[in-house]
Amino acid sequence: MVNTTTYAPELIRDKAAGDNAFYKRGIITGLFSGIFYGLYSSFCTLGMNSGIWAKWSAGAAGLSAFALVYLIGALGNGLNDSFSALWALANTIKNGKIKDFGRCVASKPGRLIIIGAILGGPVANTAFIIGMAAAGSIVAPLSALCPAIGAILSRILYNQKLERHTISGILICLAASLIIGIPGALTADPSSHFGLGLACGIVAALGWGIEGCVCGWGTSLVDSEISITIRQCTCGILEMLVIVPVFAIMSGGHGVGRLVVTGALTDPSVIFFIISGGIAFLSFMWWYKGNAMCGTALGMALNGTYSFLSPVFCWLIVGVIGGVAGYSLPFYDWIAAAIMALGIFVIASDPKSWSKKNKEAI
């Protein structure tokens, strides 16, 4: 008979080491989701500033102010998510998981992912578009409250423990987001729709916070490639078949909708949306996977680095490479970047572990 007592401490240490390695991989996954979120946002923005989109903005098609803000914004978002859904489906088919996709859609985790996708896609994204149009850049830091909302919900629903250093790091990242968004808001002229814009920013934060919490749990039960396929298909279908037609009717009728959709799909600038859709597929897949690996609070905070990375990549890809004016970065964005890096370090590294390592070294 083997004396298991002798091996128990070693087994415990091996398990702890494995858990720690899994946790660290989750942190890296969450960081990559933020990096790729910034990249996909920049290519989507480049597409909406190129070709026929630039002509629409210049008034060539005679679109109303409402159509230019809401219909065109919803169309850009819908095209990105639709192409992202095609990338996700192609990846699922390539890896022989299409049958699993069909089974998972009908399962409880699959249905929860669909609900989360609706709240985080059509609802939150549309609220964000309206909020930005109504209240300006103050909506961006408001929407960046989603990690805090996700952390609170994960504590209530899943009893996920929040360490002090995790909470402190999240607050530091939120402070960095405020540094990015508030200066633009202070220079903006509040309109009669300012209150609506702020409310929409909160709705966006709630939608993304709930999505990250619900879909992170769903991805712990469903393969991340399948869960993101469910998410992107749900968003693409609803945005192109519901949100865009509704805004088209409000902009003057179905004829306006057909005009802009046909124009966008046949213009060479569509290549930028194909690229952004592929990058978005990776970003959201790693977001879900990161949430499942290291917890909703940490995963969403790491993904929240997009609040700085999006302006950086837009500056490089849209401003420098694309030659579109208005995408230079003010000095306070770089200050916010340093603060955000500090926040991520605080989230990912428990100060208690430093003292333990020092004691072990002695």
Walk me through the structure.
The structure is a single chain. This protein has 362 residues and is an all-alpha fold. It has one domain (34-349). The chain has 16 helices and no strands. It has helices at residues 4-47, 51-57, 65-94, 98-105, 108-135, 139-143, 146-158, 164-187, 194-219, 224-251, 254-266, 270-294, 296-303, 306-321, 331-348, 351-361. Helix 3 crosses helix 12. The protein starts with a helix and ends with a helix. The relative contact order is 0.19. Mean pLDDT is 80; it is low at 1-7 and 357-362.
List the helices and strands and how they pair.
Layout (H helix, E strand, L loop, with lengths): L3 H44 L3 H7 L7 H30 L3 H8 L2 H28 L3 H5 L2 H13 L5 H24 L6 H26 L4 H28 L2 H13 L3 H25 L1 H8 L2 H16 L9 H18 L2 H11 L1
Helix pairs in contact: 1-12, 1-13, 1-14, 3-5, 3-10, 3-12, 4-10, 5-9, 5-10, 7-9, 7-13, 8-15, 9-12, 9-13, 10-11, 10-12, 12-13
